[in-house]
Amino acid sequence: MPIYDYRCSRCNAVHEAKKSIAERETDLCPACGAVAHQKISPVGFALKGAGWARDGYGRAITGEDYRSGKVSRQALADIPVAGPDGKLYQHGKHIAG
C-alpha cells in the first residue's frame, strides 16, 4: 500500500499513513483527532544513467532538432511554455503556476 502525507485542518500537524488508493483522501490527525487532508508531495524520483543522458532528455529542444527530424511538430506543440505572467501554458491553456 502507498504511503500518503496528511496535514491536519485544525492544528496543521503533518503525518504519514498507509492507505489504499480508494481511501486516501482524508485521515484523522493523531495529535488532535480532527480531519487531516492529503498533501501533494514531491516525488523522490531521478532519471540517471547512460541511456537518459545519451538520448538527450536532459537538454532543451532546439530548432535544429526540428529541422533534422529528431522532433516532430506535434512534439514541439506539446511542450509547455512559460507565459509573460510566469505561468505554464500548453496549447494556449493555463496548466500550472
How would you describe this structure to a colleague?
It is a single chain. The longest helix is centred in the middle third of the chain and has 5 residues, at 50-54. The chain has 2 domains: 3-38; 58-96, no CATH class. The protein is elongated and about 60 Å long. The chain has helices at residues 50-54, 63-67, 73-77, and strands spanning 3-8, 14-18, 26-28, 35-38, 81-82, 88-90, 93-96. The chain is an alpha+beta fold and 97 residues long. The strands form 2 sheets. It has a 4-stranded antiparallel β-sheet, with no helix packed on it. A 3-stranded antiparallel β-sheet has the order 5-6-7, with no helix packed on it.
Q: How would you describe this structure in keywords?
A:
7 strands; single chain; 97 residues; 15% helix; alpha+beta; four-stranded antiparallel β-sheet; elongated
